């Protein structure tokens, strides 16, 4: 009887298999497989899009940083034309108001300052040299080596007055040369610049000797005496 049961069940299994393997079932199986493939592709595209978005954001941020750096670098150049115009006007004003046009003005100013502070200028040596020759801003540098004597306080006031004077004086150095009976001797290294006289200015004859070495005589402004 068992053999007969087996023989009966085998045809039933074959029929069920044939039913499952119909064209419609195969079609549905293909659709399911295609849906799985599409789902995989969508997930893969989502990961790729996310990675691309992150890279784009990083690129945009990098370009933004570069643009800000360029803006900061160009900020000092903004309004450069106006700045150059103002700087030129300031330089012209400095030349006209603080730089002498003749060496006699320098000698006279030193004498006035020395007399005002009660300091005796015993010797002043001048050494002129041309600066920026051939240009519109050509100047003559006037280096001075001066010897002064007097009480300590008047000498300090004299040095301070040189630094604060309307005429431009640059103090290169101060050396103590001696002290006797309360009188202090100093050696001063000074520099100023002579500009080219304008058409409205009268060019005075130089009071400097050809050698550039002038020992101030008693009674002259440079010696702290009475100006005539």
Compile the SSE list and pairings.
Layout lengths: L1 H19 L2 H52 L5 H19 L4 H15 L2 E12 L7 E12 L1 H13 L5 E11 L2 E12 L18 E2 L14
Antiparallel strand pairs: 1-2, 1-5, 2-4, 3-4
Helix pairs in contact: 4-5
Folded structure, characterized:
The protein is α+β, with helices and mostly antiparallel strands and 228 residues long. It is built from five helices and five strands, in the order ααααββαβββ. The protein has a five-stranded antiparallel sheet with strand order 3-4-2-1-5. The longest helix has 52 residues, at 23-74. The protein is rod-shaped, with a radius of gyration of 49 Å. The termini are far apart.
Q: What is the CATH class designation of the largest domain?
A: Alpha Beta
What best-fitting shape do the alpha-carbon axes yield? rod-shaped
Largest sheet: 5 strands, antiparallel
- N- and C-termini, Cα separation: 160 Å
Determine the mean pLDDT. 76
* Number of helices in the DSSP assignment: 5
- How much helical structure, as a percent, in the residues? 40-55%
User: Which superfamily, in CATH terms, is the homologous superfamily of the largest domain?
Assistant: Ribosomal protein S6/Translation elongation factor EF1B
Give the low-confidence spans: 1-10, 203-228
Q: What is the gyration radius calculated from CA atoms?
A: 49 Å
Going by helix content, strand content and strand pairing, the class is: alpha+beta
């Amino acid at each position: 009887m068992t053999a007969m049961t087996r023989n009966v069940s085998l045809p039933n299994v074959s029929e069920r298999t044939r039913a499952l393997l119909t064209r419609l079932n195969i079609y549905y199986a293909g659709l399911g497989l295609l849906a799985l493939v599409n789902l995989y592709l969508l997930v893969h595209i989502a990961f790729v899009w996310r990675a691309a978005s992150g890279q784009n954001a990083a690129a945009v941020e990098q370009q933004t940083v570069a643009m800000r750096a360029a803006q900061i670098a160009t900020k000092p150049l903004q309004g450069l034309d106006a700045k150059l115009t103002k700087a030129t006007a300031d330089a012209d004003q400095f030349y006209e108001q603080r730089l002498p046009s003749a060496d006699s003005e320098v000698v006279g100013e030193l004498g006035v300052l020395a007399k005002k502070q009660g300091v005796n200028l015993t010797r002043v040596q001048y050494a002129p040299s041309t600066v920026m020759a051939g240009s519109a801003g050509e100047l003559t540098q006037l280096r001075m080596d001066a010897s002064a004597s007097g009480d300590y306080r008047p000498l300090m006031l004299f040095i301070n007055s040189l630094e604060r004077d309307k005429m431009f004086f640059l103090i290169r150095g101060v050396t103590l040369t001696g002290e006797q009976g309360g009188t202090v001797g100093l050696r001063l290294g000074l520099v100023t610049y002579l500009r080219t006289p304008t058409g409205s200015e009268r060019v005075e004859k130089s009071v400097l000797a050809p050698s550039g070495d002038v020992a101030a005589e008693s009674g002259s402004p440079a010696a702290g005496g009475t100006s005539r």
